[in-house]
Fold:
Amino acid sequence: MRSMLKPLPAFAAALLLSASWGAVAKAQDFDWRAHEGETITFLANNNPWATAVLKYQDEFEELTGITLRVDTYQEQQMRQRLLTVMNARSDEVDIFMTLPSREGMQFAAAGWYKDLLPYATENAAPDYDFEGFSPALVEAATFDGVLTGVPLNIEGPLLYYRTDVFEECGVNPPDNLSKISEVAAQIKECKPDMTAFASRGLVPALPYTFSNFLHNMGGSYMADGKSNLCSEEGKKAIELYASLLKDYGPPGVVNYSFYQLTSLYREGRSVMSFQSSNEFPAVMEGGARLEDTAIVPLPPGDGGSHPTTIGWALAISQFSANPDAAWYFVQWASSPEMQSKLALEGIAPPRNSVASNPDYQAWLAEQPVRQQWQKALEHLADEGTSEVGYPIIQNPESREYIGQAVNAVLLGTSTVEEACAAADEQLNALIARE
Amino acid sequence: MDTSNSQKAQLAALSAPSVIFTVVMIAFPFCYTIWISFQAVSATGMMRFDGVANYVRMVKDGQFWNGLWITIYLYVLSLTLQLVCGTALALLLFRARRLPGFIRSLFISPFMLPPVVAGMMWLIILDPSLGAANYILTSLGLPPSNWLASPALVVPTLALIDTWQWTPYVALIVLGGLQSLPPSVYEAAEIDGASRTKTLFRITLPLLLPTLVTAMVLRSVDLLRFFDLIYITTQGGPANASTTLNIYGFRMGFEFFQFGYAGALMITLSALVLGVVLALNRLRNAVAW
Structure:
């Protein structure tokens, strides 16, 4: 399991140290107008980070004189567009958003990322503070010594629940994974017209939430180079996750991803919702859930607490015709100043300095739920693992088989034994193809 | 150079742009797909010749057969519904000639919507928890349905959405056919005292057969390549219950980087489309009058 903030890995420390020396040496020569008149293209995922940062696009263009063209797509479509561009070795895209935990190993092996370490060390603005990034996130974005992207946020699935409903029903929130079904049953009995527990059910999307169940249960995806989904812990995790959604989830949960979860919870139709920390601003939009929601990490299980913790990163294409100008956008968008602004809009900052910023602290203090959200994120940073799916180059395909196994049990088309055996067979074949 | 050669050269020069366009835009991608279907493409984009391995894998792949079955099931169901509803709508519009223009436009408006918009619209309407469809059902005392989230209902639901969108298109084709039918046949039927039902089944529909086969050809090409609506609404789920060959091939290529295998799937799908179109063309010749 790849821990997020275990003792600082030596090479990540070396990266940050070299960055700070380089920054000192080059900072005085830095000129924001060095690439004036150039045009760069940014392929963006239409998520809360991109939406928030692109509101300041004019400021970037005024500061640098660089024209920024933006192509925005939904996450899946963005990847498909990127894949086409990269396979053609085209320079159409200079900068793109990437999820190192998903495609990092694959894109790095294909040589699609520009190494950003030389940029961060030799061509950063004086106040860029590269060493201020969470070392774990820098490590998660580093493959074979290549820094594939700079961290934009920290995120993971959290349990959002309705304090008013729990109080009204006289039920305590679950403090252990083994109690979550019991609690959901009590809620369902008390409030039959509400969804007691909701989480992702859509095949490609559910490994993000399921992984937390697996790891808290003490399971892992791989052991001794083979798929380990059929371990006792793996089977228990599949059983629990699928039965929670089957018995207490919303109708049609097999098609649920973040969008449906957010809508359902915001509308006051679900009591417990296990979904991304990134959705916090969307969930709180309109203010209906500000006063009656608490947020915690998923309760620990037999294997302890190992929340899923990932982060988006900003990368430069290896085939970019303007990598130097592209770097200017990358460092502007990931600067402490910008991340401080974005934090006030609910984008969890990947720098400790931003998290302790007085403005951010004041924003958190305005609502107890914001403080709970931040506390849960700190737990993610301390104890989290970035393992979502199999730690192999074909990680995206591995997620498909995990999702299919959970879905088959959820829909009742297979037993847990049959589903995990079928998944293991496909996953071992996938591992063998590496 | 004699006149004949000069004319040939002129003709060649004039037709060259269209020939080049056809080769570049149609023949090249098709040939490239055939070529790539014989390659093993790694997750990092490396290619090597792999013979017919992708086709052998396809024959052994349960998901391929599942995709083929869903493609055919969706095709037959949608085409049947669209032909029946389209013909009925065309007959209605043909008889109600005094129907105000805006009502006629309303009838044919769904197919003017981009499929992505139609997909999003129906996704919201059919949401089992928050959608209007279940709200209406429960208000009428009927049980709610899982629509697109049920493995058993997903294909019929997709067929209904597609029928809602494309019935007007079929109706317009059939309406054109109705307007071209010879009035003398109807006059003779009237003199012979044929009932309206008899006239419909013994005269109108048989005479409309060539038009209906034309509509079948046009819809068949789209229905066998069914993609956008599924991609927007279910992405092939739940549990692969709506993963058509086209969706499966797309996911193999653009989500899992298996372009060789995706190429083999697409060539197979192209062969299926070509086969159906050729068969329908023969049928059209057979029913021509």
